[in-house]
Every structure is written in structure tokens, then in C-alpha cells.
Amino acid sequence: MTDRSNDFNGDLPKSQARLVSGFCWYTRRMIRKHFLVFAMDISECDYDGLTAETPIIFYLNHPGWWDPIVAMQVCQKYFPGRVFYAPIDQVAIEKYAVFKKLGFFGVALEHRSGSIAFLRQTSAILNAPNSSLWITPEGRFADPRDKNAEWMPGLAHLVAKHPQAVCIPMAIEYPFIDEVKPLMLCKLGPMVHGRDLVGVSKAECSVLLESKLRLTQESLAESVVTRSFNGFKVLVRTAQTPKSVYDWGRLLVCKVSGRPFELNHGKTFRSS
Predict the structure, then answer these.
(1) Is 10 helix (H, G, I), strand (E, B) or coil?
(2) Are residues 267 and 186 located together in one domain of the fold?
């Protein structure tokens, strides 16, 4: 494999395919350890037919630490031809320098120079072929039920500057239901074409895009509340290996009786 970065623009962050693949492999093991399943609903997002010249801006809510890992996994699974790029706090990227080779780039939006650098880098990304930009407009960790989280204006500026782009809202939740481990759930909403927002003020554009994400969050929340996951596809599932003496005893009884063994106690996302 070769370096997926190129000389298209000096402001384009680096993304090394071998490292990205290795990072995704490693984080899938982390997900398998800490979550019951990682499941995805893409039924409302018709992304087929997008050409390499069409940049994609994925904008998501920001409920927790796992969000960048979710984004990278979704990109690798459903958009394998796309190069992953995402802003991250400048202090964090200096502390974890390997992120600089995974498509992440540092931002310091509290300074004017940082905002200018952000717009310059995102412009380089959205002008490059096969690009995908993953951002969290809330700008801070926010509960998925928090509809009052501050919405930063950067997304509307990007759409105004790059009407050739499409925007895809993505909702994330990590709910506990009927097992010790939580679920990692994700849902893509309908695409918004930048060309349809030409002539719309940045304020109106921001309101429209936020409403699309909030509707996607509400749809995901309804699935959680009603325990209705029929449209979800499981990307990663926890290992069905007994961890306690009690579970090993259950496995032995099932083997002797010829019944299938199910490690989980609840019915949500059962493997059988």
C-alpha cells in the first residue's frame, strides 16, 4: 500500500493507508472488548452514485470519547475508497503525534489564526479527490438528548465555499440496555447537497443542517427507546467466550443437552 496523501495541496493532512488499516483493526478489538455490539443503520442514506470528485462532509453529534473511532470504522466499512480526514484539538494531536498520519489535523479555533488554518486545511481536503471530512459541529462532548448544545458556524461556511460537496448527518449513541456492556449505535441520515443551499444565508444553512442531524438523533433515540433495531447491521460483536465459572457451567450444560449456547442474558442483538 502507498501513502494516501498527495501533493495536491501543501495544506492537505497526511493519511497513510497502512497505518489507518492497522488502527482500525486495533480499535475493532477495543470495541469487541468494551461493547456488546457496534451496529449501524444506513437505510435512510442513499450514497450510491457519488463520484470521486464529490467531497463528503460527515457531521455528527459528539456524545463521547469513542466518536473518532466510530467515524474511522464507518469510513473504512462503507466508504472504503474515501480518505478519512478529521479535525482534532491541537493540544491532543501534539500529545498523540501518530494521529497526524491517520488523517487528523490539529485545530485551535479559539484563535483567529486557528480558524483561518482550519478553513485552509478543510478547503484543501474538499478540493482533493476521494476526500471525506468528519466534523463535530457541537465542538464539545454533549449528551445525545441535549438539543441545546452550541452549534459552531464552521459547517455552514464550508458548504457556502464548497457547494459541490454533500453533507451526511450521523447520529451516535452508547446506550446500556440489558447487558453489562453498552451498545455502540450509529445512524446515517439523508444526504444534503450543497448545490441545493446556494443562495441560502449561512445562518439559515446552519439551522437547516442542525435540524437534519437532530432528526437523525431523534430517529436513533426512538430505536433505542423502543428496542427496535431491525434496520441495523452489526459491524462488530463481542466475543461469545465465557468469562466466569457460572458461564462455563452453562456452556457445559448446553453442550451435554444439545442446546445452543448464548452468552448474553438479554435478547438485544442476539447472535442466534
Answers:
(1) coil
(2) no
Cβ count within 10 A of residue 198: 11
Q: What does the block give as the cell for 123?
A: 478547503
Which residues span the domain enclosing 267? 241-272
Q: Report how many helices (DSSP H) and strands (DSSP E) the chain contains, helices first.
A: 7, 9
Q: Of how many residues is the chain composed?
A: 272
* Tens digits of residue pLDDT in 161-200: 999 999 999 999 999 988 888 999 999 999 999 999 999 9
Are residues 153 and 253 located together in one domain of the fold?
no
Tell me the pLDDT tens digit for each residue of 39-81.
Answer: 999 999 888 778 888 999 999 999 999 999 999 999 999 999 8
Strand ranges, E, within 71-113: 83-89, 104-107
Q: How far is CA 204 from CA 111, 168, 197, 208, in A?
A: 25, 17, 9, 6
Asked whether residue 261 falls in the same domain as residue 230, the answer is: no
Tell me the CA distances in angstroms from 189 to 5, 128, 170, 216, 260, one per residue in order: 28, 24, 6, 5, 37
User: DSSP E strands: which ranges in the chain?
Assistant: 37-41, 56-60, 83-89, 104-107, 131-135, 166-173, 184-188, 192-193, 233-237
Counting the structural domains of the chain, the total is 2
Contact 251, 97 (CB under 8 A): no
Q: Does residue 2 belong to any structural domain of this protein?
A: no
147 and 221 in a common domain: yes
Bridge partners for 16 per DSSP: 3
Longest dimension (CA), the chain: 70
